[in-house]
Write a structure and sequence with these properties.
heterodimer, A: 111 residues, six-stranded mixed sheet, B: 115 residues, mainly beta, seven-stranded mixed sheet, four-stranded antiparallel sheet, 11 strands
Amino acid sequence: GESVGLHLPTLSVQEGDNSIINCAYSNSASDYFIWYKQESGKGPQFIIDIRSNMDKRQGQRVTVLLNKTVKHLSLQIAATQPGDSAVYFCAENQAGTALIFGKGTTLSVSS
Amino acid sequence: SAVISQKPSRDICQRGTSLTIQCQVDSQVTMMFWYRQQPGQSLTLIATANQGSEATYESGFVIDKFPISRPNLTFSTLTVSNMSPEDSSIYLCSVEGLAKRDTQYFGPGTRLTVL
């Protein structure tokens, strides 16, 4: 079936490093992608999104890259901080359909 | 920015009982969603709740087990009926289109433990 998955369940980095979290999706018809951050005991928090007519989008310290050829999505976090420690989920959908979530990557940032 | 709240934030319940979870948004929204997040897992959509119509349930979820109400554009409830320990999860509501069209924003979740 169609699903969204992540390459690595955990990622450990040092404070100040750049982090890259990856996601593979299987539905080539998906045209909207979102990254969420979920801290312990909280609901998912929107970080950044990208539509299929783009291949890169930047926010504050975060960049999302979309490679439609290989159906790959990544989230880059610059100068990672301890407050970035959380579980990160990618999600995708196409117009009019439900959002499908990937399995999540736990990011641990050590000082 | 809009605020999404849920009540209760957590509960411990006995098997066989039912719990109703409330989701309140401080602005009017058309589409509200209910998700389940089992321990250490990702989010799974239970149903979509639009005001003025019956909720639409995803495969594996039925109305008798998870009845949903959507009386107006700012409020929804999800009931977890006849609970068993397998229902222990975080239940999350989300809304679409608060700040960005198509984007879903989530409430803080309700952590349910069934003994």
